[in-house]
Structure formats: C-alpha cells, structure tokens
Amino acid sequence: MKREEYGDVCAYLNERGIKTELVEVSKNNKVKLHGIRLGDEVYQPVVYLEHINSKEEGYEIAKNALKEGEEYTEQYEDFIRHVSDYSYVKSHLAIKLTSDPLDEWVSEVAFCDIFKVPYIALSSELGQASVTITKSMLDIWDVDSNTLFTDALENTKKIFPAKIMSLLDVMREIDPEIGIVQEDSIPLMVVTNETKLQGASAILYADNLPGEFIMFPSSVHEVLYISEGIEEIINAERANNLVKEVNTTIPPTDILSNRAYYYKKGEWNYI
Questions:
Q1: Is residue 233 within 8 Å of residue 224, measured between CB atoms?
Q2: How confident is the model at residue 42 (pLDDT cuts 50, 70, 90)?
Q3: Segment 64-89, tens digit of pLDDT
Q4: Three-class SS string for 223-255?
C-alpha cells in the first residue's frame, strides 16, 4: 500500500467505529514501520500498513487485532496492574542482543559492538509478548541499571534455558527426510534458547561452550559457531561475507550484526 493511502485506511476504520491513530514505530536496527494504533483500551494493538493491500483488508485485520487485544488484556490483567512494581516485574525480565539499540532503550555493551538490552517477557495461551525496557521505566521502578542487568541475565537463564545443537540436527528438525550425512561435514553449532525467540543472547550464558570459537550472528534468535580447525577453515573476509549473505535472507529487524566475532578464554574480538 502506498503511503498516501494510509489516511484512507484510518478514515475507513473510523467510519466503522474503530478509533485509529497513525504511528511510526521504531524496531530493532532502527527499522521504521508505519502503523495504525487501534482503540482506546489499555492494550492498543498496532496494525502495520506495509502488510496491508487495501482498506477492506485493513478493516478485517483491525477487527481481528482488536479481538486479540481484548484477549491479551484479560490474559495479562495481573501484570498490567503490577507493572510499576519492580519486585513483580523482576520474574519476567530477560536479555536480548542487538547491534543498534534505540536511544530510549536501556542498553550496555555485551562485547565488541553487540549490546545487551533488557526486556519484559510475557507468556500465555496466546503466545509470547514482550516489552523492551526504556530509561523512563527505570525511573518508575527506582532501580539502577546494574541491578536491572544482573537480575535480567539471571532470570533469562531460568525462563529461557540455552540450547546448543549441531546445525545438522537443526536441519533434520526442519526436514526429517535429510539422509545420512557425515557429522563433521557440517561442523557448525547453533546456540539459541528453548523458545528460539531472542535466543542469540544464550551465547552469554550457555554452558559447555568451547574455550575458543568463531561466532556467526545469524539472527537475533540464534547464533552459529565453529570451534574445530578454525585457522584452516576460514578467514576474516570469508567469515564476514558469510554473515552478510545470511542477512540477505532474513527480515531487517532480525539482523544482529554484519560481521563475525572471535572468542577465546573469556575475551571477545572482531575476527
């Protein structure tokens, strides 16, 4: 849909009793999406106009979004009531990774040019929902950033346990028909969490990682690493080009970085 048609969609929804507000939403990597915020309840869903082809389609999507919004409000009623209480929120904290945090987000360097960003993770029968923590929320909670990051990392380990698998096993999960392949022919390992959402942060706390490896940030949801024979297998240019090639296949908001990283005995560096 063309940008000049966005107002027509709002008018069409307003005529049918749906309150709207045009908004520009900044996502990961400062990707900006244009949307319509719906309704006037506590939970106001946003429908992104880039994914709508007509005002009629927008109306159907908006109706479904409002219905889901009511269900989310019911599911998370207790959380909404206690959102200003840090002692309650603490058990919902988690950490995600990004290379380009928004200015209003709370963030700190994890390694090199990769940042840790705390967020609130919610789970219900409707699925997963999240709220990135902003600096203004710290003021409401009267909590310092060191406490927040410590609590968020510890809680992430509990609610999103790390998961390490060979890339071959991941491929077999997707396609069980993959035949017998020699294990060492695909030496890459995958690090994520059990939900496979924002799982790249598991590289910060996963157990049994080797003492030396090259990491390929394949997305914000998982990373790859290789630890055997890395000097003979790969060089910096090849490693970085591999990451860039992978990034062409995923949404811009899922990109973690455009380069590979080298880890050895607790220290991170650019490859």
A1: no
A2: low
A3: 988 887 887 777 778 878 889 999 99
A4: EEEECCCHHHHCCHHHHHHHHHHHHCCCCHHHC
Secondary structure (3-state) at 12: helix
Amino acid letter, residue 162: A
Strand (E) positions, the chain?
Answer: 20-26, 32-38, 46-48, 93-98, 108-111, 114-124, 127-132, 162-166, 189-193, 212-219, 222-226, 261-264, 267-270
Phi, psi of 210 (to 5 degrees): -65, 165
pLDDT digits (tens, 9 = 90+) for 86-109: 999 999 999 999 999 999 999 999
Q: pLDDT tens digits, residue range 164-198?
A: 998 877 766 766 666 555 555 557 899 999 999 99
Q: Quick one: average pLDDT of 202-220?
A: 95
The Cα-based distances of 250 to 30, 90, 220, 244, 245 in angstroms read: 16, 32, 10, 11, 10
Q: Assign 160 to helix, strand or coil.
A: coil
Q: In the predicted model, what is the mean pLDDT of the chain?
A: 88
CA count, 13 A, side-chain hemisphere, 64: 7
What letters, b where the CB count within 10 A reaches 16 and e where it falls short, cover 37-55? ebbeeebbbbbebeebeeb
22: amino acid identity, one letter = L
Q: Distance (Å, rounded) from C-alpha 96 to C-alpha 201? A: 5
Whole-angstrom distance, CA of residue 161 vs CA of residue 194: 6
Name the CA radius of gyration of the chain, rounded: 21
Task: For residue 80, give the nearest of 39, 48, 41 by alpha carbon.
Answer: 41
